[in-house]
Write a structure and sequence with these properties.
Helix content is about 10%, strand content about 35%. It is mainly beta. Strands 2, 3, 4, 6, 7, 9, 11, 13 and 15 form a 9-stranded mixed sheet that branches. A hairpin with a 2-residue loop joins strand 6 and strand 7. The two termini are about 15 Å apart. About 35% of the residues are buried.
Length: about 280
């Protein structure tokens, strides 16, 4: 039962024995934490304080961007955007001191709290490989197409993006992992999962009330979208240990297949129309 269902779910029937709940006070506290975005945000930000690489990097400002340069391999991390435009374009590279620096990372909180931004666009040959924690958190972002070479999107990257509806991955996406609460309190409606994708961190779908349409590449060997209702994955415990990772948010009735061994945290979070859950 722990953290499976949203407090707002209209759940009328569930197959469980109330006598199994040993500590009601503890359960209540966990539900209060689950639905409190401010406390969740503060907690995650605190956890990420030590994530930054301590390596010394040379920092520069070019137009509306601030970059941290790695002079050894001629790469750059975009660490801050100060643009007041609604559309922002991130180039593949830029020239500094007669040398080309290739942008390979979007840093932690780089676009956080930007109130004018609606769309971020990237060069077709972008070499960005990673999007940092809370990179676009609490911004007015409405749509984004992730560069194909991005392999990791870290926790809370789109936290609080309440206008973000379009999140798109190209067909040749190399994305492998998403951190926890990537879309917490966002308006994301659709998501496509590429063949390269390996790992959903626990709670990736927490507080995603509008996420109803998912598609998973037929070439993805670790995930499946059962009956267009449930995302099913495998546990670290083995190939035959099936985990229900996500349920589309507009479900009214959920029939859990008998082969499911575990329901992941927040799998049914924000399923406000859910009235019954039956274990087959």
């Amino acid at each position: 039962m722990k953290k499976f269902f949203s407090k707002n779910s209209k759940l009328l029937m569930l197959n469980f024995n109330p006598e199994n709940i040993q500590n009601f006070d503890k359960l209540t506290k966990e539900f209060n934490w689950m639905i409190d975005p401010i406390q969740s945000y503060i907690s995650m930000m605190s956890d990420s304080e030590n994530e930054d690489n301590n390596e010394e990097k040379f920092k520069i400002v070019i137009n509306d961007f601030s970059f941290a340069l790695n002079v050894n391999d001629k790469t750059a991390c975009l660490i801050e955007c100060n643009s007041q435009n609604d559309v922002v374009f991130v180039p593949r590279s830029f020239e500094y001191d007669s040398q080309e620096f290739i942008i390979t990372n979007i840093g932690k909180c780089a676009f956080r709290d930007l109130r004018y931004i609606k769309n971020v666009q990237f060069a077709e040959d972008s070499e960005i490989r990673e999007i940092g924690s809370f990179a676009f958190a609490n911004s007015s972002l409405e749509s984004i197409v992730i560069p194909s070479h991005v392999k990791v999107i870290n926790k809370g990257a789109f936290f609080g993006c309440r206008k973000l509806k379009k999140f798109e991955l190209p067909r040749d996406s190399e994305l492998e992992k998403m951190g926890k609460q990537v879309f917490f309190d966002s308006a994301v409606e659709t998501m496509n999962i590429p063949s390269s994708f390996i790992d959903f961190n626990g709670g990736f779908c927490k507080k995603t009330p509008y996420l109803k349409n998912l598609s998973i590449s037929l070439f993805n060997m670790g995930l499946s979208y059962l009956d267009n209702k449930f995302v099913i994955g495998q546990s670290d415990l083995g190939e035959n240990f099936a985990v229900l990772l996500f349920a589309r948010r507009d479900l009214g009735k959920a029939i859990i297949p008998s082969f499911i061994n575990q329901i992941a945290p927040f799998a049914f979070d924000e399923c406000k129309q859910l009235k019954s859950v039956i274990f087959a």
